[in-house]
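Long-time lurker. I teach an intro course on protein structure, and each term I like to show students one example going from raw sequence to a predicted 3D structure in token notation. This year I'd like something fresh instead of my usual example. Would anyone be willing to generate the tokens for the chain below so I can use it in lecture? Attribution to the forum is fine with me.
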Amino acid sequence: MSKTVLITGASRGIGAYAARAFAAEGYKVAVNYFKSEDEAASLANEIGGIAVKADVSDPLQAEELAKKTLENFGHIDVLVNNAAIALTQKVICDVGADEWDKLFAVNVRGMFNCTKAALDSMITRQNGKIINISSVWGITGGSCEVAYSASKAAVIGFTKALAKETAPSLITVNCIAPGVIKTDMNAHLSEQDYAALKEETPLGRIGTPQDIAGAMLFLASPAADFITGQVITADGGISI
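-- Reply from a regular --
Happy to contribute to a lecture. Here you go:
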């Protein structure tokens, strides 16, 4: 039986690379998107998956996302909570309450909604893997990134607690904390910024979406069956 993966925020960036990587390993892939319909449809067609529109911050849409995945594939073996947004860099005094709420709605409540929506079927089958995407800023904190850092720290706390709760059902829950990855989310960074960050990184380079997709595949594989509640920091050593 083919394994299936539901990846939120999968139309672009890390999510899109992950969708291709999982498909290459034989997974059936549900590509979640919210705004990038053309990109999601093209990707789903390319990999033989399905594209499902949903605002993950809305619990009803998250439930429908899981329902459509189950209707098409029968089960969800892996859930990757990847959907996230970020603010432009600004000091905390300039962050509005509406900006804070929107950030947490997607980055934290979205993860909560999708996990709840997918978990029942995993518990019934006594099998499943949940992979949450945090950030190195969720570990170290980032100046002028307080809201984003706080939301990504919440992802880590959620991961560790849920791992204890779902372990009796043989469901593992782990987290990946990427460092600086060259994606649309970091499009505001200049080449000079990237050069400085590269110099700060012990491995001497900026991360790629493929680096994070590889970590996802590992955590989804049987090789990681005895790993749960962990944070894999994929940052080239910048947080050391």
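Some talking points for your students: The CA atoms of residues 136 and 239 lie 7 Å apart. The mean pLDDT is 95.
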